[in-house]
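User: Okay, second chain of the day. Same drill as before: sequence in, structure tokens out.
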Amino acid sequence: MITKRIIPCLDVRDGRVVKGVNFEGLREVDSPVGLAKYYSSCGADELVFYDITASSDGRKLFTEILRETASGVFIPLTVGGGINTTEDFERVLSCGADKVSVNTGAIKDPSLLERAAKLYGDQCVVLSVDVKRVDGVFRVFAKGGRENTGLEAIEWIKRGVGSGAGEVVVNSIDTDGVKRGFDIEMLKKVCEAVKVPVIASGGAGSIEDFINLFKSVPGVDAGLAASVFHFGEIEINKLKEEMRKNGISARLGG
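Assistant: Same drill. Structure tokens below.
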């Protein structure tokens, strides 16, 4: 049985972790350095660090705060935000990241995924996709959920995986921060479309939401969340104990 991963997400703006609802109304939470160390020690399987305004601000990801964050964690670290070139991959990996997440950069230049996979291996290349329903169609949004690209999400994800992405993070804008459960309908379609690991993001509000995710969509490899972990609403080890009680394989211990 494949062990399911639990992944806290650090959405970082101006060097601080923030969280909002439906990608809006951001409020400050804590230092990414302190939170990363905490999660590394309390049972998280991996950690995601997003510089959430790098793309919309048209700048490169902050490397100083990333380097300090990476030095304090002993679990795999995925980093994204402002990744537009293979040089950005190199810079982020040299700061201590294990994987690099690409979103807007891949939309602007789809060949980036293939070039990065050839240089660093597809295990380092993560395609992050922000998806929202528009007139009943799953559409890809760019620049932190601010811009509708017009791309149909499932086809875009298939194309990205075909180009070399070794993992996909699917962020549902419709359920982000609402805490009423993951977007099961969308995740089922993604898992049917690709054979690489799929990480579900957006909507976790309780332990039961994670149980429902892994039971309803067995093909999902991991559940990613932010505020429920940041504000102590869900303790990761308690979540994993409940997963195991429900027949879902999880790594226990911090």
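Residues 191 and 218 are 9 Å apart (CA to CA).

User: Thanks, on to the next one.
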